[in-house]
Amino acid sequence: MDTIGFIGTGHLGYPIAENLIRAGYKLKVYNRTASKAEPLKALGAEIVSSPEAAATKGGIVMSLVSDDAAVEAVNTDALLSALGNGGVHVSMSTIGPEAARKLAEKSKAHGVTYIAAPVFARPEAAAAKVGNAVIAGEKGAKERITPLLQAGFAKNVFDLGEDPGSANVLKLIGNFMIAASIELMSEAFTLAEKNNLDTRVVYEMLTTTLFASPIFRNYGGMILDRQFAGNPSFSAALGLKDIDLVLQTGKATLTPLPMADLVKSRLLTVLAQGVKDADWLALATGAMHDAGLKP
């Protein structure tokens, strides 16, 4: 199998890299904090000291980092030169659509194809390979990298066409809908609790009938269990970053998004309260506080 460059072994990147190694791929791994990637060495990965050192001529580099600036810091001239003609950069990060388009143009100038392939999965879902990928970019490169996505985390892969920005728009829409669903559930469960209903029964009834989906089932259970902080899989700060990108995308296309404004306010409140290890699920505490309940 090909040697794959892999950049970014945070909460989500690590299980994807581990799955790829277990699937038989040889990985050259770079992470800004090298110690976070070190355990992969015991599985057979080569730990390298720079993004460009993860690349091979005409090969594939997969990256999963925190934001637009981090992807731009990875997608350097040095990395693109190391990949060279025929190389592919698979960006699995959640970034803005315009950033993705600019990165694609920069890559093209070096003979490298940029594929946007943002990840729909929390770490546990990625580890179990039941996540979802949305991909956009050049057709041949998408065909080349799809087996990697399937081996790494994706049960399903959805093709958005040639424009790399489109995959990131869909990723932002998905994260917006999750955040809005968290707000919806927190308000509904708060109403149930204030009316002395057994919220566990409410949760079971709703998430096995009218709202039988993984988002309502998984996040709903976490809301009831008050799993708002402690080694977050997806931090409130990253959630705020994504909702800001949603609002920026809405502004660019004159699309009002009042629910996104509310969710942003909830996340800002969480961060203002100084809970350093808050998961973005903590936005659910807003409705509870408003109603006089203790989260």
Automatic annotation (TrEMBL):
Q: Does the keyword Oxidoreductase apply?
A: yes
Keyword flag Ligase: no
Q: Which PANTHER family match?
A: CYTOKINE-LIKE NUCLEAR FACTOR N-PAC, OXIDOREDUCTASE GLYR1-RELATED
6-phosphogluconate dehydrogenase NADP-binding domain sequence ranges: 3-158
* Residues at the catalytic site: K171
Q: Which organism is it from?
A: Chitinophaga silvatica
For this protein, the record's InterPro entries field holds:
6-PGluconate_DH-like_C_sf, 6PGD_dom2, 6PGDH_NADP-bd, HIBADH-like_NADP-bd, HIBADH-related, HIBADH-related_NP60_sf, NAD(P)-bd_dom_sf
- Superkingdom as given in the UniProt entry: Bacteria
Origin organism lineage:
Bacteria, Pseudomonadati, Bacteroidota, Chitinophagia, Chitinophagales
Which residues does UniProt call coiled coil? none
UniProt-listed Pfam families: NAD_binding_11 (PF14833), NAD_binding_2 (PF03446)
* Residues of the 3-hydroxyisobutyrate dehydrogenase-like NAD-binding domain: 165-283
**A GO molecular function held by the record:** NADP binding
UniProt keyword list = NAD, Oxidoreductase
Protein name listed in UniProt: NAD(P)-dependent oxidoreductase
